[in-house]
Amino acid sequence: MDSTWSNSTLRKQADRLLKGNGARRTAMAALNPGGRHRDLRPTMTSDHAFSLIALRCLESMVAHQDATVRGESAALHQMRISVTCLKAAVSFFSPVVAGDQWRRIKLEFKWLNSHLGAARDLDVVVGQLLAGGNAHSLTPELKQQWSASHARVAASLRSDRYRRLIAAAADWIQHGEWRSADTAASKPARAATIEAYASQRLGRWLAQILRQSSKLGIMDADTRHRLRIKTKRVRYAMEWFGEFLPGSTPQTLRAILKQLRRAQGCLGELNDAERARALLEPGKRRATLPKRDRRLVKTTQLAFEALIELTQG
Fold first, then answer.
1. Where are the domains of the chain?
2. What angle do CA 67, 69, 71 make, to 5 degrees?
C-alpha cells in the first residue's frame, strides 16, 4: 500500500470519523444509507450527488462499528449494508469516479467485507437454527466458528488497517483524483445534472435485471446471487434518484420499490439458504431445489413480472 495511506492528515481524518460526536454517531446509525437523501436535488451535478451519498454510507458504517465490535449481529448487518451501498454508489457513478485510487480502496473493502460476510453468514445460520427449534444442531464446532468469526471482525475493526481504510476512503470521496480527471468520459459525466445522469444510467440498470430475470427458473445459485446483487443496487439507485426520473410519480415509485424489495428479499432468502446448506452440509449437492426454495423462485419471478408491467407496460 502506498505511503499516502499513513499520511498524518489521513490519520487525523480517521480520528474525526471514528471518534465523532456521540449525538451525530447515533443519528447516523439510525439513517438508512440506501434510503432517500434529503439533500439531493435534480439540478445537482453528479459529482456532488455522489459525494453526498458516499459520505453518508461511510458515516453510517462508522456509526455501527462499536456495536459490531461488541458482537451485536444487527449492527454488523448494518455495517455490511453500508459497505454494499457505498460500492453500489461507486458502480452507479463509475464513469465519474473510476480510477486507480478506488481500485486500491476497493481491495481494502474486500478484506473488511470478507470478515463481515463470514460472521453474517454464521449469524443467519445460528438464527435459523434457533428460530426453528433446532438448538440441538448447534454443535461445539459451529459455536466455535461463530464465536471466532465475530472475534475476527472485532480485531479487524480495532486495527490500524481499518483506520487507514476509513481515512483513505473519506479523503478519496472528498479530494480524490477523480474530481479533476479530464477524460472524454469522466468530465461530461461529472458535470451532468443528476436528473439527466440518473435517468440514463438507472434505465440501463433496470433493463438489465429485467432481461436477466427471464432465466431465473434455470439459474444456478451463483447466477442467482449475482442477480440479487444487481437487484439490490437497482433498488438503492431507485431510492436515491427515482423521484427525478421523467414521468415519475410517488405512487409509481412506491410500487416499483415494493417489487424491487420483494425480489431482493426472496433472492436474499435463497442465498441465505444456500449459504446455510454449505455450512451445515459441506460437499452435499442437490439435484433439485427444496420445495421452499422453489416457492421463493416463483415469488421472485412474479415480482420481476410486476416490474416489467410497471416500467414497460
1. 7-180, 193-312
2. 75
Prediction pTM value: 0.85
- Nearest one of 111, 125, 120 to 71, comparing CA atoms: 120
**Does residue 17 surpass a pLDDT of 70?**
no
* Distance (Å, whole) CA 313 – CA 308: 7
Q: Which one is the CATH code of 193-312: 1.10.10, 2.40.50, 1.20.120, 1.10.3470?
A: 1.20.120
pLDDT, one tens digit per residue, over 87-137 is 999 999 999 998 899 999 999 999 999 999 999 999 988 888 877 777 777
Segment 173-179 shows an average pLDDT of: 91
Mean pLDDT across 8-26: 50
